[in-house]
Amino acid sequence: RQGHWSRAVRPIVSFGTSAQPTKGEKMLRTIVASLARNNLRVSNQSVRAFAAEAPKNEDLPEFVDKATGLEQQELLAAMEGKVLFDWNPIQPAAFGTKESPLKIKSAYGVRYMSCQGNCKEGGTYPEAPMIWHTLKEGESYECPECGQVMELEMISEFSSLTAEIKE
Fold it and tell me: Signal peptide span per the entry (predicted)?
């Protein structure tokens, strides 16, 4: 089967210096020739079919329509100019004491808080490291660094919801 090899393929896949191709060269030439024949063949099978019509630009949903749950509520509130979730740090009006603890609002029974530990009068050290606390419902927490007392206050709209979840 000496004439089996295509003249166009023979020079491309020539590894050895001998006149007779090795077994590996024969196999590689067969693969290359097969790929060349199959890729150059025009076929009716290459017609692409879609299950539905392509959507028109006016049919594409808006970002708010695709959002769900709290994300959608937050986006709708933002469109009305309201802020649903306040992500800013809590700036206490007064230093929390045992008699009058700093109230930290939460919709859940646990909230993680941070304190720089320099909350006493005149303590403004922005380079101080953050100290993280875990506030739990019904318990007050005193910061070991500055002595500020904090207490978790449940938000009334969510209190009934969290009570159902606990049961």
Answer: none
What integer pLDDT is reported at residue 53 of this predicted model? 76
Determine phi and psi for 68, rounding to 5 degrees. -135, 165
Task: Report CA 122 to chain centroid distance, whole Å.
Answer: 40
pLDDT above 70 as % of the chain: 63
**Total residues belonging to the chain:** 167
Per residue in 56-86, pLDDT tens?
766 667 778 888 888 888 888 888 988 877 7
Going along the chain from its start, the domains and CATH numbers come out as 2-45 (no CATH), 50-85 (no CATH), 102-166 (2.60.260.40)
Q: How many CB atoms lie within 10 A of CB 37?
A: 11
Cα–Cα distance measured from residue 115 to residue 130, given in angstroms and rounded to the nearest whole number = 6
Is the pTM here over 0.70, yes or no?
Answer: no
